[in-house]
UniProtKB/TrEMBL annotation:
InterPro entries, per database record: AB_hydrolase_fold
Positions of region (Disordered): 35-55
Descriptive protein name: Alpha/beta-hydrolase
Biased composition (Low complexity): 35-46
Species in which this protein is naturally found: Aureobasidium melanogenum (Aureobasidium pullulans var. melanogenum)
Length: 263
């Protein structure tokens, strides 16, 4: 199962990199999951509160985590086990000087969180850039394209049976007309679970909202740019190998747009 610790492989590659790529630090977030009782190796239990939530609770967890990090920067905070830990200086999150990255459902949540924060909701600013890797951006289209019952099963577990909720959640993904940052969308040509059309349809949405489509290798950095990077690996190999994830983080941080007012 993918958790915050799955980031460690890519993290090791980034830490060993000779070039800083404008990166001051990394934070990997967990959020509660929806029920998955038929999971082949780790089925969820009805008694497990961390695996029995529906939309928008996953999104609320992400927003809550960002707010927590921003408001408790550099402070001693309590842990559930009764202990405590000292947080590093994460005040850049409050100031909006951070990049939000997500894979698969995490990419969905990164887009949704940015839409909410850019509309002025929440105690922190929206990120300066986004990276969505093999993301799900149109939930109804995903279910319609893939006839295997597992797709409908996991979507209804996360969003319920009402397909209007699927549409509303998908609309929030691309609602970035007020946001001025850059977007890097990464999709594998060998992804066996999520199709390239998910990425292409989101790019079209963003272009309508004033984004300029550019190459992922372009050097311009004026804000409101969207680019696509095509990789070649299976869906979960992004985490397992870490190479493409590290590459995407390097690209998006190099292209992260900081407005003059935020310097």
């Amino acid at each position: 199962m993918i958790t915050r610790k799955s980031f460690n492989t890519a993290l090791d590659l980034l830490i060993k990199d000779d070039h800083p790529h404008n990166i001051a630090g990394f934070v990997s977030l967990d959020y509660r999951l929806s029920p998955y009782p038929s999971h082949p190796t780790s089925p969820s239990s009805p008694d497990d509160n961390s695996r029995n939530v529906q939309h928008p609770e996953h999104l609320n967890d992400v927003l809550g985590a960002l707010s927590f990090l921003g408001s408790n920067a550099g402070e001693e905070v309590g842990l559930k086990n009764g202990g405590s830990t000292h947080l590093p200086d994460t005040s850049s999150i409050t100031a909006g000087r951070y990049v939000l990255c997500g894979h698969s459902c995490g990419a969905t949540l990164a887009m949704q969180a940015t839409a909410i924060l850019s509309a002025g909701h929440g105690s922190i600013r929206s990120p300066v850039a986004l990276s969505g890797m093999e993301g799900i951006y149109d939930i109804a289209a995903l279910v319609a394209t893939h006839t295997h019952p597992a797709y409908r099963e996991f979507v209804t577990a996360a969003f319920g049976q009402n397909e209007k909720t699927w549409v509303t959640a998908s609309q929030l993904v691309g609602k970035l007309e007020k946001w001025r940052g850059n977007v890097l969308l990464v999709q594998s040509s060998s992804d066996e679970l999520v199709d390239m059309e998910q990425t292409e349809s989101l790019i079209e949405k963003l272009v309508v909202q004033g984004f300029t489509r550019t190459s992922s290798t372009s050097t311009g950095n004026q804000g409101k740019q969207v680019s696509k990077m095509v990789i070649d690996c299976l869906h979960d190999e992004v985490w397992e190998k870490g190479t493409e994830l590290a590459k995407a983080i390097r690209v998006v941080t190099d292209k992260a747009w900081i407005s003059p007012a935020m310097h």
